[in-house]
């Protein structure tokens, strides 16, 4: 992924050039190149998991995009986040209940216009799309964090077929909250990076059936240890759950660590300040601006 790594330097508004000119070394407080990962594309500005959202992300300086995939009834890899279609398309059932041809007629833009009145541009008429369509449009200009959203055992293999068809093995990382799905992807493609998404603290405790005598930190460390033992290269935690100790532990175990669920600028600042390697965000432009501001401040000191 050397090409993508180089591109990250460039899209951060030539932050790396500033570093080189000033002779400023990297620090844990400013991991560079920091992964600014557009969450479902620039999903605060265009309908999530659509070509429009990925176009917006690229315009804003993000070369990393996160996308959610599921399988249609006829085994086509389609981008969609939710477990049901109703809220965002108005249709009944799940992605797996429909052939791809029907799914690609479903409008997600109307939902976006209704829920994001602050965005002046209208996206009504924007349809769901396939993974192949995204690869066809953007090719190796982006790095794709492919979240295996369903527990379908065939999902990783079908996605891998598309990745290999477009020769994008060096531009992909598999992720999921489902450990088995990440492990399955890792077994099928050992050379493709894989990251475990860890549930937020309250859900992590609930799913583990943890009593008051069990610390959240111990559950988080176990998740990191499990990811390392499985050969994954990254873990991701909710921004509000990050601590200096958690980040240090992940890095000591040889794993990258990034933040998810960035709800506001405070979460963004927290992830950067604590030394995370990156974050998924609906507002990639804000992160790019913040990184540039910090770099300018550093070079001026």
Strand order of the largest sheet: 1-2-4-5-6-7-8-9
Helix count from the secondary structure assignment:
14
Oligomeric composition of the shown chains: single chain
SS content category:
alpha/beta
Describe the structure.
This protein is of the alpha/beta class and 301 residues long. It has a single domain, classed as Alpha-Beta Barrel (TIM Barrel). 43% of the residues lie in helices and 15% in strands. It is built from 14 helices and nine strands. The chain has helices at 2-11, 15-22, 51-59, 86-89, 100-103, 109-115, 131-138, 155-165, 179-188, 201-208, 216-229, 244-252, 265-273, 284-300; strands spanning 35-39, 64-71, 77-79, 143-148, 172-176, 194-197, 234-238, 256-260, 278-281. Strands 1-2-4-5-6-7-8-9 form an eight-stranded parallel beta barrel, surrounded by seven helices. α2 runs parallel beside α14.
Question: Which SSEs are present, and which pair or pack?
Answer:
Layout: H1 2-11, H2 15-22, E1 35-39, H3 51-59, E2 64-71, E3 77-79, H4 86-89, H5 100-103, H6 109-115, H7 131-138, E4 143-148, H8 155-165, E5 172-176, H9 179-188, E6 194-197, H10 201-208, H11 216-229, E7 234-238, H12 244-252, E8 256-260, H13 265-273, E9 278-281, H14 284-300
Parallel strand pairs: 1-2, 1-9, 2-4, 4-5, 5-6, 6-7, 7-8, 8-9
Antiparallel strand pairs: 2-3
């Amino acid at each position: 992924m050397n090409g993508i790594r180089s591109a990250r330097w460039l899209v951060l508004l030539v932050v790396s050039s500033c570093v080189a000119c000033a002779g400023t070394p990297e620090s844990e407080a400013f991991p560079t190149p920091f992964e600014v990962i557009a969450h479902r594309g620039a999903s605060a500005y265009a309908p999530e998991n659509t070509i429009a959202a990925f176009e917006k992300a690229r315009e804003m300086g993000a070369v990393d995009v996160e996308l959610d995939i599921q399988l249609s009834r006829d085994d086509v890899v389609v981008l969609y986040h939710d477990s049901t279609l109703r809220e965002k398309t108005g249709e009944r059932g799940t992605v797996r209940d429909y052939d791809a041809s029907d799914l690609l007629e479903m409008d997600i833009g109307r939902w976006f216009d209704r829920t994001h009145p602050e965005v002046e541009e209208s996206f009504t008429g924007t349809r769901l799309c396939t993974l192949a369509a995204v690869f066809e449009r953007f090719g190796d200009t982006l790095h794709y964090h492919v979240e295996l959203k369903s527990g379908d055992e065939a999902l990783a293999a079908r996605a891998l077929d598309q990745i290999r068809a477009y020769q994008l093995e060096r531009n992909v990382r598999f992720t999921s909250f489902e450990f088995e799905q990440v492990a399955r992807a890792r077994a099928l493609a050992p050379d493709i990076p894989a990251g475990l998404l860890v549930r937020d603290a309250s859900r992590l405790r609930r799913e583990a059936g943890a009593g008051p005598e069990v610390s959240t930190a111990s559950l988080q460390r176990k998740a990191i240890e499990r990811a390392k033992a499985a050969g994954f290269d990254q873990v991701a935690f909710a921004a509000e759950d990050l601590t200096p100790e958690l980040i240090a532990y992940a890095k000591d175990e040889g794993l990258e660590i990034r933040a998810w669920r960035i709800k506001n600028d405070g979460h963004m600042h927290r992830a950067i300040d604590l030394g995370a390697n990156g974050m998924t965000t609906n507002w990639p432009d804000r992160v790019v601006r913040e990184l540039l501001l910090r770099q300018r401040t550093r070079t001026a000191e």
